[in-house]
């Protein structure tokens, strides 16, 4: 009987998979927007709604978003019930959708330099992959 039980594939834990991806996504969003808010309050960034044209400020925002996206990929992989790299990559693919929409809106709305939202869309998937790799190395 145990031989038969060992041949039955493990049931997929879809709710836990979805939750791992949602938590990773929300962590990236919350950390990014929270840091943005702190920098606005400290008057490092211009007020909300005012375009930010300074390349150094955009590079700063891109830098911490890269770190947070790597962390989101790691967290998603860490929480995944199985196939952690697959979950991290799914997070990156899902994040590509709002990043691409955001890039289109930002470029058409003249909210700042075009390279910044394009860079956000480009780096998201590689960053979540790196987060998955970091998790794999720790496991």
Summarize the structure.
By secondary structure, the protein is an all-alpha fold. The protein has helices at 2-7, 14-41, 55-79, 84-109, 115-138.
What features would you describe in this structure?
By secondary structure, the protein is mostly helical. It has one domain. The protein has five helices and no strands. It has helices at 2-7, 14-41, 55-79, 84-109, 115-138. α2 (14-41) crosses α4. The chain is elongated. The two termini are 32 Å apart. The model is unreliable at 1-8 (pLDDT under 50).
Please tell me how large the radius of gyration is: 18 Å
Portion of residues within helices: over 70%
- Biggest sheet details: none
Our count of domains comes out at 1
Count of strand segments: 0
Class inferred from helices and paired strands: mainly alpha
Q: What would the principal axes of the Cα set say about the shape? A: elongated
What is the H/E order? HHHHH
Beta percentage is: under 5%
Which stretches of 5+ consecutive residues score pLDDT under 50?
1-8
Distance between the termini: 32 Å
**Mean of pLDDT:** 93
Report the oligomer. Answer: single chain
Number of separate helices: 5
Name some characteristics of this structure.
single chain; 139 residues; mainly alpha; 5 helices; 0% strand
Q: Any chance you could write out the topology, listing elements then pairs?
A:
Blueprint: H1 2-7, H2 14-41, H3 55-79, H4 84-109, H5 115-138
